[in-house]
């Protein structure tokens, strides 16, 4: 079955044709390890994990590279401000190396909790300094660089198709529009390849280079490490949508200037997680971590389920009632899976076909979830076949449906079914039947509360005898 993916570079949904089938090389921009990842960041990694699982589902052999940015990401994308890691090190009174190590491990634990498959290759920026210097030398020889008082910069005016990834939006998003414009830059879009260590402060992370002691720019790291492990061009490069106008645009400029061939064939970007009115961001202060969810008794996989309810190219708004809904839905799936007999069976071909079509249509996970629920409720399918089919689907969902974790089940499946029957009766304006079901639910120890968002159900603490 053909797989279609939306390519930011061509702004079209395209048939996926890897450069060297059945192998697929995929590079995903990893975290800057100066703090815990927030659940917005994690939405992007969940999207990338779904993409990878869909590739594997389609029979491809995926080499997945993820970098760890442990140096060079400044507090502003316009190459100004402090290094995020050195700044946090000062705050926490630890070394920059310790900070990077600590938050890298925390990040890996988060991925595990979310059932995100480990990359084939992890690579750290600080392990590749000589490689960065090599690429900058190539760019220098080809005449793309110039020197300012604070570093070696890339001259974007030398690249005729600079900004092609962002297209027309680029003008509006130019870092030059920002207040921190550096007057020594020849063009507002120019960016640092190598920054010199400041004269007055001693940096913890710095290296010698042909241009002076300093540290690499952020974009150079991904250009170098992706090509080093995947070649150029490679198949897929991904990240969040915020990477389109600056980070990925600059990666393309450097890599294509240096090697005179395309950097990657497909570029995929995940939309933001929103909280309140704005995207979730550390700088906005409106962020939550997985631990914040756990503290309120939400399982990490409930967050994964929640992410699957929206298409990756649509913004998704986080609310507590939405995560509550996701946790309940997941509990119901777990409960159903526990009830199905563990008899060997083949999956249902028709359901599998529809599921496969949904995921191959640019990863339509909301549709795939709808098909899953339709299957759960389909009386014509034998329970062991349901089980086998759901396990097949879970190769992509990654919700541990085969082996559900222990979760506190507050409302058993039979009560949910009664609630659905009551909803149906209400829709048909059969008030008598609806009331009868409400009474039956009450007899079994549960209370329905009708709210503007729909009915809610909870365990009655005092039973009416
Ligand atoms: P960073 O550690 O800042 O480099 O970000 C790691 C990843 O998270 C990047 O791919 C970003 O695009 C992504 N990201 C940042 N904020 C959000 C958000 N609110 N929703 C989804 N992804 C995000
Ligand atoms: Zn990157």
Which features would summarize this protein structure in a list?
465 residues; Rossmann fold; Isoleucyl-tRNA Synthetase, Domain 1; 3 domains; five-stranded parallel β-sheet; four-stranded antiparallel β-sheet; 16 strands
Provide structural commentary.
The chain is of the alpha/beta class. The chain folds into 3 domains: 4-270, 3-Layer(aba) Sandwich (Rossmann fold); 275-397, Orthogonal Bundle (Isoleucyl-tRNA Synthetase, Domain 1); 413-458. It contains 15 helices and 16 strands. The strands form 5 sheets. The protein has a 5-stranded parallel beta sheet with strand order 5-4-3-10-11, sandwiched between helices. The protein has a 4-stranded antiparallel beta sheet with strand order 6-7-8-9. α4 (129-141) packs across α6 (218-230). It is elongated. The model has no long low-confidence stretch (mean pLDDT 92). Bound molecules: adenosine monophosphate and zinc ion. Residues 29, 31-32, 40-41, 43-44, 239-240, 242-243, 272-273, 279-281 line the site of adenosine monophosphate.
Secondary-structure map with pairings?
Elements: E1 4-7, E2 12-15, E3 23-28, H1 39-57, E4 61-68, H2 84-92, H3 96-113, E5 121-124, H4 129-141, E6 145-148, E7 151-154, H5 170-173, E8 191-196, E9 214-216, H6 218-230, E10 234-240, H7 244-259, E11 264-270, E12 273-275, E13 278-279, H8 290-295, H9 300-308, E14 316-317, H10 320-339, H11 349-360, H12 365-376, H13 383-397, H14 413-427, H15 431-443, E15 446-451, E16 454-459
Parallel strand pairs: 3-4, 3-10, 4-5, 10-11, 12-14
Antiparallel strand pairs: 1-2, 6-7, 7-8, 8-9, 12-13, 15-16
The structure holds adenosine monophosphate and zinc ion (ZN).
